[in-house]
Amino acid sequence: xxQGPYSDTVIDHFENPRNMGEIEEADGVxxxxxxxxxxxxxxxxxxxxxxxxxxxxxxxxCAAAIASSxxxxxxxxxxxxxxxxxxxxxxxxxxxxxxxPAKHHCSVMAEDALRxxxxxxxxxxxx
Length: 127
Ligand code: FES
Hints:
- The chain is an alpha+beta fold and 127 residues long.
- Helices cover 43% and strands 20% of the residues.
- The site of FE2/S2 (inorganic) cluster (FES) has 11 residues, from helix 2 and helix 5.
């Protein structure tokens, strides 16, 4: 059992974030911040057809926020936009092996960034 508030998976994704960085000329981009803690996540999507072919993120935030963003990118890569829209922060948290209640909002920030990036893409497409 992990010591401290975070699961081994959270610590792994915090220490080795997947898909960290940015995509130049991304098809959908969103930046979402939490005014209470001041953490910010930026998500970049590369979309071909209706599918997310690449995704990168930058998070200036706590370990849970970085791990949630990292897990989100892993779960949506290769998915269609509709499938990605259905991803919830509960699913991300489950895949992370849970988060302490005080860190719930960190996974919500990742979900909000994902939805906003897809909406940004759809707006640019005029949909
Ligand atoms: Fe605010 Fe984690 S403490 S995102």
